[in-house]
Automatic annotation (TrEMBL):
Its cofactor is Zn(2+). This is Peptidase M48 domain-containing protein. InterPro entries: Mito/Outer_Membr_Metalloprot, Peptidase_M48, TPR-like_helical_dom_sf. It comes from Hydrogenovibrio marinus. CDD domains: M48C_bepA_like. The keyword Membrane does not apply. GO terms for cellular component: membrane. GO terms for biological process: proteolysis involved in protein catabolic process.
Amino acid sequence: MSPLALGSNLPDLGAPDLKDYDSQTETSLGRAFSVALHEQYDLFYDPTTLSYVRHIGNKIASQTGQDRQFTFYILNDPEVNAFAGPNGVIGIHTGLILAARTEDELASVMAHEIAHVTQRHLSRTFEYQNNVSVTSIASLIAAILIGSQDVSAGIATYMGGMGLNIQQQLKNSRIHENEADYFGIKYLDKAGYNPYAMSDFFGRLEKESQLNEFKAPEILLTHPVTEERLAKAKERAYQLSKDSKRVYHKNSLKLIQLRMKLLLHIDDSYGDKHLDKNEQCYLENLKSLQSTPKKVSSFNIQCLKDATKQYPNNKLYRLLQAQVDSVINPELGHREFTYLEAIYPSDFSIPYLHALALEQNNQIDKAIELLRKATPKFHSQYLMYSELARLFSTQNETKYSYYYNALANYNIGNTSKTLYLVKQAKLLEKDKSSLFFNKLIQLENQASMDQKIAEQKLK
Ligand SMILES: [Zn+2]
């Protein structure tokens, strides 16, 4: 393919006739969107998978040159799709993770979605009218981005009523997709991934969908693969990579897909026959952990040790080894988890799984202490706070259980549930001058302030 000059094709940033919403509105919309995701959709919360996806996302996000917080969620949905919601909330469907052949391909779609955020596409897409609440807008955005079974008919009518300008949206969408490809491939390359992965992935999905008599993957409906789009993406990758002699390493996607299929009960007996011995070992030990978590004889720790030795930088083998050792030899498991926490301090799934292992071994106080120390270090603490709430409730420490549940809900933007739970905790705390009571008041104030802002209508 002959290299084309791409620089001049860079699309114009934004249509001047659309008003950008302000950052306070964006924060509120992001919170309401996250609540809608948690309440109306099925999120996939396997800590290992979530941590894997967040790691890729954060790696790409750190290359955007913008100091913006992203939050990545996995949607339990077999459709091959992904979306970028308000305030940096990005969703990846389980179907997309399973359809990718390499981590680079998965990363390429994430980079594309991240670029939608950095280019502020969503805030430039919709024009809002007065008297529409943030909550309604957020649910609507979620319905458009995710539940697009019949966008054209039902949602469009609804949108008309809500005062959203669908024509404007359609007019901008092609420009936005171009921009997301353009910047996405740049971020992908800067994050150390193969910049050709985007054209490879979309090109293959398109070919497969032509062979498939059933319907095309959702993502191709919103991201039509044209010759022109593929050529542009390849050219962009060529420009970025022509001088580099990078080697792309084998990565952990295959193991992640194995655990997803196991947890989601997706039968893949054909694929399972084609695993190498390390992958086979990972799957077998994982199955035992699922079905007979306390039966020492059901594990094969030796093959896990071999896999760890062969791939010392593959965190997933080591993490599973720590989980299995926690069953066979709790003291050793505890040491392995502590070691992993030290070398991967930004991975929330390690202290989380460590706490679960401690709980299995009836060391609840230790589990609580570990999570309380670890939680403030992370941006998305929903899983950890929920776990703390659960651990406290097993100890009949109801007021603390309410408090951590309130924090979990606050973390995903659910202010009304937060306020309800804080109120319950306050009723149980006798000492109104205690430090704990003070913390409750603080959280209550924060949550009610956020709620007031969210209740304001969009202007
Ligand atoms: Zn897009």
